[in-house]
Amino acid sequence: MTDDAGERTELELTSRIEDYLEAILEIEMSGDVATVTRMAKNLGVTKATITVALKKLKNDGLLEHERYGDVILTAAGREKALAIYRRHDFLTDFFVRILGFSVERAQKVACVMEHELDEATETRLAAFTDVLIQAERKKEEWLRRLFDTLDSAHELPSPMCLLPNGSNGVIARVTAQHDLRKRLQASGFFPGVEISDVRKISDRSGTSFVFNMNGMGIRFGVTEASAVWLYSPRVIG
Questions:
Q1: Percent of the chain having pLDDT more than 90?
Q2: Is 38 found in the same domain as 22?
Q3: Contact of 231 with 157, CB cutoff 8 Å
Q4: For residues 234 and 136, which has the higher predicted lDDT (pLDDT)?
Q5: Average pLDDT for residues 141-162, to the nearest whole number?
Q6: Which position among 118, 161, 174, 214 has the lowest Cβ density within 10 Å, counted as fewest Cβ atoms?
Q7: How many C-alpha atoms does 103 have within 13 Å on its Cβ side?
Q8: d(CA 231, CA 96)
């Protein structure tokens, strides 16, 4: 944000308004009282921008604020702020404890996602996070295996066209749709089928990919090679 006009435009976004409510709550939780000056400092915007936001929030019945006075959440404002804070908190916890993000990175990602979740998605994701946290406390074996898998993200499926020359793998999925999907399936491309020695070839006719499947040499165009994804590629030379 470079000027007040640009900031006022941004204030029309629901996500930005939610940030202000969350900021007020966080200031209260720190044992302090929310003011225009404190909010401007915490959010990194001008006091004029804060004043515009507070006016909107006051008109919406979410807070009480008199000129130069403290900012106080109403019951409705506190309920909404707590919902936003809870969402941010469990997302951060999920990214740190389950996915292994740094706290700083988790906070940034949570800030983006918290405004996009509908209630049903939030509820199910929160419940899923809670199951994982409870399993972590109990040291469940299945959770250890899950963490091992997360630590091996480099082994996740990749499109054939992105594999290094000489790669082997097993088909994980075919992402093509409609006629292309039917043609690939008719040729035997299904999950579990082994592919070997994938090679990229570029010549006057364009780029293509050659590989072996079931003892046969096959040549793909870029479109087909983008639609067949393989597990655990291993370079053989």
A1: 56
A2: yes
A3: yes
A4: 136
A5: 83
A6: 118
A7: 1
A8: 26
Residue at token pair 């702020």: 81
Residue 229 structural domain? 158-235
- Distances in Å between the Cα of 1 and the Cα atoms of 20, 53, 105, 171, 180 are 16, 15, 22, 47, 46
Identify any residues that bridge with 65 across adjacent strands, giving them in sequence order.
71
Are 161 and 122 in contact by the 8 Å Cβ rule? The answer is no
Look at residue 213 and give its three-state secondary structure: strand
Angle 10-60-12 from CA coordinates, rounded to 5°: 10
48: which 2 tokens?
A: 């004029």
Given a contact cutoff of 8 angstroms between Cβ atoms, the answer to whether 204 and 188 are in contact is no
Give pTM, 2 decimals: 0.61
Number of folded domains that form the chain: 3
The one-letter code for the residue type at 192 is G
DSSP one-letter code for 161: G
Note the pLDDT tens digit of each residue in 55-82.
999 999 999 998 888 999 999 999 999 9
Q: Are strands 206-213 and 216-221 parallel, antiparallel or unpaired?
A: antiparallel
How do residues 81-139 score in pLDDT, each as one tens digit? 998 888 888 899 889 988 889 999 999 999 888 878 888 888 898 888 889 889 988 99
In a domain, 85, yes or no: yes
Residue with tokens 């308004």: 17
Q: Which residue in 233, 82, 109, 104 sits closest to 171, CA to CA?
A: 233
Query: In this structure, are 179 and 208 located in the same domain?
Result: yes
C-alpha span between 106 and 102 (Å, rounded): 6
Give the bridge partners for 183, in sequence order. Answer: none
